[in-house]
Amino acid sequence: MSGSSRHGIGFWAVSGAFLVAMAFSTVPTPLYPLYQARDGFSTFMVTVVFAVYAVGVVISLLLAGHISDRVGRRRVLVPALALELVAAVLFLADPSLPVLLVARLVTGLGVGMITATATAYLLDLHTAHRPGASRQRFEIVSTAANLGGVGFGPLVAGFLAQYVDAPLRTPYLVFAVLLTAAIVAVAATPETVEVRADRPAYRPQRVSADHGDGYLVATVAGFASFAVFGLFTSVASGFVAGALHHPSRALAGAVVFAVFAAAAAAQTLTNGLAAGTRLAAGLLAQVAGVLVLVAGMHAANLAAFLVGGVVAGVGAGMLFKAAVGAVVTTAAPARRGEALAGLFLVSYLGLSLPAVAIGVATRAVTTTTAMTWFAAVLVVLLAGVAALSRRRVR
């Protein structure tokens, strides 16, 4: 088999592994109400479990997310997938709360290594397979594997939990098999980084924030967009089962899938938009979506909740893409890595902190009230992004 053909097969192997890994990261999303019913822990504890995952991602991004440039893509991606497999085994071995926390931390550590490495690997393989070709295939596939995978996990887990025996074990068993297959596939994929004998000494990924006014706009936009993603991957399933009175696990998974599928589609379909237009459209869509979502909760209307979530997902997808584009454009090439690291650090704070705040609030008020407060704060934050962006343009 020619080298080009091997790179072409490897491109799809890594795409599949990327999708499986990101899907596994959200398998617990539709299962949280089942854990709550079995063990009696609160919405606050659900958000703590979720926040532990975000902590793992941030630690891994800073310590290992960048090292595949030096040691090779495969040497990072295979161990990262193995970490995900370890997490799956932990979920299967003992579903108690302490093990759940450890398993989510391990999942986050694996995902932090996978996102940057798999994306860079896909670009390398695409370039080797189709030299001189447009990057459009790479951009579409990497977005679909990343955000699409995050939505695919709850869809599969929710379906299995609804229609198959052992709902707190079967989804993890299925993904343990898929992760094993992904490890084998990646191990057979050609390496794309030539490892130098005189490698420089290891250091963690540098993080910096001094990249001009546009960087502040980008980081606040990243925080706001990930706040929506965090809402749907942590407590949205509980809202659907509780406040909206729809306990179906399959439905909960489908709702989360719809939001992330909308975000992935929006990122892909808005490639031709100017950066300012994408930012403005993302802001408007996210504000409108969150307001409709909260209105649906107050009316206990599932359709409105779902429409609001999808529109908010579209907005969050466009907003985060605009944020990444702004950082790549404004940061000096030599400091682009540390600028993006800062963006992802702030964004993952957005993924976890608002979700935990909602969990804390539900100890004193209803989930609908907590969501109303969340929406109000998010609208103010998005208005701040719009004001900062407009001032920068002027």
Automatic annotation (TrEMBL):
Under the heading SUPFAM superfamilies, the entry gives: MFS general substrate transporter (SSF103473)
Q: Which domain of life is it from?
A: Bacteria
A molecular function (GO) held by this record is: transmembrane transporter activity
Which Pfam families is this protein grouped with? MFS_1
**Subcellular localization, as worded in the UniProt entry:** Cell membrane
Positions of transmembrane segments: 41-64, 76-93, 99-123, 144-164, 170-193, 214-244, 250-269, 281-299, 305-328, 340-364, 370-388
Protein source organism: Virgisporangium ochraceum
Q: What's its membrane topology?
A: Multi-pass membrane protein
Annotated Gene3D superfamilies: MFS general substrate transporter like domains
Q: Which UniProt keywords apply?
A: Cell membrane, Membrane, Transmembrane, Transmembrane helix, Transport
Q: Look up keyword Transcription and say if it applies.
A: no
* Chain ranges of the Major facilitator superfamily (MFS) profile domain: 9-394
Q: Which InterPro entries match?
A: MFS (IPR011701), MFS_dom (IPR020846), MFS_trans_sf (IPR036259), MFS_Transporters (IPR050171)
Cellular component terms per the entry's GO annotation = plasma membrane
Task: Please report the name of this protein according to its UniProt entry.
Answer: MFS transporter
Where it mainly occurs, coarsely classed, is membrane
